[in-house]
Design goal:
26% strand; 17 strands; 2 domains; alcohol dehydrogenase (NADP(+)); alcohol dehydrogenase (NADP+) activity; metal-binding; ADH-like_C; alpha/beta; 24% helix; globular; Rossmann fold; seven-stranded mixed β-sheet
Amino acid sequence: MTTVAAYAAPAPKAPLERTTIERRAVGEFDVLIDIKYAGICHSDIHQAQEGWGEAIFPMVPGHEIAGVVAEVGPGVTKYRVGDRVGVGCMVDSCRECDNCEAGLEQYCTGGGMIGTYNAVGKDGEPTYGGYSQKIVVDENYVVRIPDGLSLDVAAPLLCAGITLYSPLKHWGAGPGKKVAILGMGGLGHMGVKIAHALGAEVTVLSQSLRKKDDGLKLGADHYYATSDPKTFEELAGTFDLIVSTVSAPLDFNAYLGLLKTRGALVNVGAPEEPIALNLFSVIGGGKTLAGSMIGGIAETQEMLDFCAEHGFGAEIELIRADQINEAYERVVNSDVRYRFVIDTSTI
């Protein structure tokens, strides 16, 4: 085992603090990664504050990990020392269920995927995430970061990027399709970039117009404020697909009204509270209200290659590790454009 420095939440809602954790010895099929950058996802905050239910503490968050291979086990065939790699939201799954065999490891039914943090691995030990200096992961849950992407802007793609890429691909975003991205934050800004690169006509639906210039620069064709009631009148029946990145309760009936017949409203944001829904908002027009969670390992690699091919990563603000707690407050207050990334050399 190896002792490494990390930042951890010692208890629910407690400030994160510097500590040390143990990483397992490199096994036959394991890859030891020197973490260079780790993105801060709103999911980290939800889990560190137990917003999504009881959690495991101490908790080392972080599932947007970019780094360099430092050591490989004797059975590893996919990676070599020096390779640029990433780790996303999961580090294992059952590998045997229908979903795992279909490349949908995120929906593993054989016990569920094993999260990069706030989970228990097959060895019975808690998993610790990317706010740390190193991590050991089975090679099958590691992805390659293309040379065209710098590691700092690639890190958020391991969650924010795949979280938007997967539903946009699944629901057919592309030429001839009108797609709305609801929310212009860490997830939403990646949705704009990816939907634009896929060839869709892209509209941002945001609470205000204060980020309009950014949205248009990143590839949006249109930008509307949802705080303006006229938006819902003007855009009624407009979209083939709406992807909601919002993690607060919404008036889903209003947003379903913006869809065309047989359109889909897909949620990737996860509010802590239950939602209210009038089913006639779905029944009328044959509409779909759906959810999507990250993507499988193969699709995550596809997403990284796609982003590299189109020449973009995330829009980031690089921070030191001792700024993590401040960054959490700013994320909650929507004061980041658009993803905080930790320089892990400062841990």
